[in-house]
Amino acid sequence: MVGDEAARRSSCGTASSRPLGRGREIRRILQCVRRESGGPQALLLLGEEGIGRTTLLGHARELADHDGMCVLSAQGWAADHRHARACLQQLLAPVLDQLAGLPAAHGQVLSAALNPVTHDGGPDDAQVQAALLALLDRLATSRPVLVCVDDIHACDGAFLDALCAVIRLLTCRPLRVLLSARGEAPPPGLPPVMESLHLGPLSAPSAAALLDRRPAAPTGRRRLEILEEAEGNPAALVELSRRVPTALRAGGAPAGRPLMGHAFAARLDALPPATGRALLYAAAAGPGESVAALMAALDTEDLTVWAPAEAAGLVSLVEGRLVFRHPLARAAAFSRHPAGERQQAQQDLAETVARPEGRAHHLATAALRTDESVAALLEDSAWRHEDVVGTARALEQAARLSPQRPERSRRLAEALVAAHAVGDPGWVRDLHDRFVRDSGDPELVCAAAGALASIMSLESAQREAFDLLVDVSEHFPAVGRPVALAVTAVAAGIAVQSGLPEHRAGLSTLLDRAQETAPAQETAPAETDSAGETDAAGETGRAEPRRPPVTGFLGHLAGPGTERALEALVTAVVRPRTATGSPVRPGHPHGAPLHGPYASASRTAVLAAACLADEADVYLGQFRETDAQLRTARAFGIRGWTVLALVDTLMSIGWFTEAEALIREAAAEAAVLRLPRIRADLQAQTLALQALRGTVPPEPRPTPSVWRAVCLDENRATQARMLRARGLAAIALGDWDGSWRHLRGLFTADGSPLHPVLSPRSIAELAVAAQRTGRSDEAVPVLARVRAEQGDRPSTRMTLLLHHATALVGPDEDAERHFQLALVNHEADRWPWERAHVRLNYGIRLRRCRRTREARQQLTTALETAERIGAGALAAAAARELRASGAAPTPDTVGLLEQLTAQQQQIVQLAARGLSNREIGEQLFLSPRTVGSHLYNVYPKLGISRRQQLRDLLEQR
User: Which residue of 172, 218, 293, 858 shows the fewest CB atoms closer than 10 Å?
Assistant: First the structure.
């Protein structure tokens, strides 16, 4: 995060360990501690138990000590009854030797207050307060002082009053006060004007990083469960990750022994037995269960059973549902009961809950041995879950409860496919290891291989993933065309990501094998007798419809539409020249559940093929809808294959704000799931977006740990994205030689594209860099190679790019014609940045040919387009060329900024750099609405009407 990075630089070398995910909070604390402009003299940290208040205060003490400050600290403790001034004694322990330098009266008062046993009666509170003020005033004359008090709500009232006096009366001294308190509101007695900083939950990536730092950190399914249960609370992450014996669990809550040492034990022990039992049922039910269902399971209608727990701050009743106010409260309420009581709670809940998946879950959790009836119930209800995490968990549990090997293998394979849709590599590998020991069915083997290969590709291992699919392709004759095509589609995605010629050649072989297999309707049905009965394991029963086969990457296949879509995708990779026409119109496969993550199987395949053919923008509505469905289903294992293409599409059509939001959200998911290749791609796209907006940092630095985990030799798509991003960034920074170096890396020494799809799309940018650096002759062979590989029918977008590049590095006498050919097709308006880029360079040429009027027309249109889409770098270049052409300059801005307030000037500076209202608000501790209001009032004063004009305005100062 940007805030984390800034705070890290500010505290570099000053702390042994820095709190994760608290960059914004640390920055505000540093403003207080280091007496920076706008920093408060006193700051109160507020938050729930275990949220990290103590850790942040400890970090602040380390920073202050490193800066040479005098650090005094204390911690309130309600159970500390040693004497009335325990907090004062903690605070002054490091400076007791300074008492001798005080006036005699103050020294004696503090000595008596700190040693009540040796002084009869002791001084009154007013005397102690005055003496404390004198001591702190004396300390602050020699060096700055930081007073840190943790859990101020548990300190005695006299000590709190003394701190308030310090804050109020020593404002002119180099003294700062940091306090922390539990809860959302300041404790009584503090000054009402004292600034407070609320500590919320950690972000999902920060929570995952903290959990992964634990000794013997959990992996796979259990890791995701802990992250979900902890709700971003650091203490809950630590507590829930402790190893405990496996026993009955509710929704993944650990059981076997009570969770000890947390703040809820005493409150739970003080509850009446009936309330403790009610909390057990609530914890076993999991979040979201209605109070009505809980009351039915408890066999009571008396709602007052919850009153003691509400009074203790453990739960709240919200809109007919019971909510635990802290993640550890739920875990503790469940684990403190014996196993028999937990089992009975699960059985009672199974009788009362309305949702089939809930009933199946409770029965399965209560089961002590394998049970086919419960396993079948789990399997049948698995696809009712709203997300694939619940589906995968239910199927895995169904496999565990399956007594027969065939059913266990099939359910494991389905769980593996669902876990792959989640996108967690550890979970997928764990299930795959168990599956290979249990099954040899060809269809299931192909499904498992497709799921594993898909997740391996999202990590980085393209060669290993592709080889795995080649190995299982020997089973294609036995599995039928749907499964074979699904496996081949996964291989196609891998081939696109790797960009390796040998993968494209191998994919052609896989496609031929898949097309030789029998269609779905020709696969052999289950053997039945004349009465419709079927023999299974020696038993006779009614034949059930055969389930749709599990099929790895694209889930369940049903219907010819999905087969055609898969085949179109593979063909677009194998024979791209034949795939330049419009792709098959997307649609849902027949019979697929519309609410599930696999409902968009054919649509996902068609959109992937459309991206390869430069037609993704045509289907942008369906593209965004599909992404939203997958996001709702928490199916990042599938989204990981499409989200990068969606970001590329949004950037190409100038939807920068939506692209930025999508990058941010996907990057968080990829960090939680530990998918380094996806994170690397998203970082490259972030840099490219910054370059287009003109907000590139002076020294852009991708995360080293992410890029070390990615082998670029077998991930050429990732390498191509980063090379283009670095090339664009170099252009934005005015480094044309650097731009040429990076963009030339998109092609091999003989001009072949490094990546067959992404490299050609940068040919115009390469030509611009070549022209600016005097390397046009070197770019010509590359351009010729790209033109030849695009064939006779390049896409509209590639036609524009090829004409643009030819106009720049081709024969000078042909430049005019190629510029006009690049602009003549209005269909190319679908790519506004690339079209405006043509107009910019055409305008430059016209101006240098002294055709000023024509140049201004092209440059003005380019500027308007760049400002409309927020392409700051392009807008700045167009504005410079317009001024060079003698166009009327914008009004003189000297003195305009001076009429703004200091805060408005800060907002304008940050907005001109391309920061959003939310990002500006985070830096200045304002709400996005306040930032927007300031900008609305500022525009008329500056004589502008759009945010994009701020950059040019500041450049003219």
Answer: 172
CA distances from 152 to 157, 178, 296, 549 (A): 10, 10, 42, 61
- Res 568: pLDDT: 84
Per-residue three-class SS string for 273-315: HHHHHHHHHHHHHCCCCEHHHHHHHHCCCCHHHHHHHHHCCCE
**Contact between 96 and 47 (Cβ < 8 Å):** no
Residue 564 Cα to chain centre, angstroms: 34
Which amino acid is present at 491? A
Cα-based distances in Å from 26 to 29, 196, 236, 746? 5, 13, 21, 41
624 contacts 646 by C-beta, under 8 angstroms: yes
CA distances from 357 to 330, 360, 379, 583, 632 (A): 21, 5, 9, 39, 18
In sequence order, which ranges of 286-424 are alpha helices (DSSP H)? 291-298, 307-311, 327-335, 339-352, 356-366, 372-382, 388-400, 405-422
Tell me if residue 88 falls in helix, strand or coil.
Answer: helix
Angle at CA of residue 605, ends 604 and 608, nearest 5°? 85
Structural tokens at position 480: 């039928």
CB atoms within 10 A of CB 858: 27
Taking each continuous run of H as one helix and of E as one strand, the counts in the chain are: 46, 9
Rounded to an integer, what distance in angstroms lies between the CA atom of residue 387 and that of residue 638?
Answer: 13
How far, in Å, CA of 903 to CA of 242, rounded?
A: 47
pLDDT tens digits, one per residue of 84-134: 688 898 999 999 988 888 898 888 888 888 886 655 557 888 999 999 999
| Maximum separation of any 2 CA atoms in the chain, in Å | 110
Task: State the pTM of this model.
Answer: 0.84
List the alpha helices (DSSP H) in 402-528: 405-422, 425-436, 442-459, 462-472, 476-479, 481-498, 501-516
How far apart, in whole angstroms, are the C-alpha atoms of residue 720 and residue 763? 12
Return the closest-CA partner of residue 592 out of 633, 640, 636: 633
Q: Whose CA is closest to 855, among 864, 846, 865?
A: 846
Length of the chain: 957
Check residue 78 and give its pLDDT: 67
Q: In angstroms, rounded to a whole number, what is the distance separating the alpha carbons of residues 134 and 917?
A: 45
- What pLDDT, on the 0 to 100 scale, is given for residue 499? 95
Cβ-proximal residues to 234 (8 Å cutoff; 6+ apart), any chain: 50, 51, 52, 55, 202, 207, 210
- Rounded to 5 degrees, φ, ψ at 182 are -80, 140
| 632: Cβ contacts below 8 Å, ≥ 6 apart | 386, 387
Task: State the pairing for strand pair 321-324/533-536.
Answer: unpaired
Q: For residue 158, list its beta bridge partners.
A: none
Tokens of 921: 């608000």
The position carrying tokens 């994919």 is 507
CA distance linking residue 557 with residue 519, whole number of Å:
12
pLDDT at position 906: 84
CB of 942 closer than 8 Å to CB of 896: yes
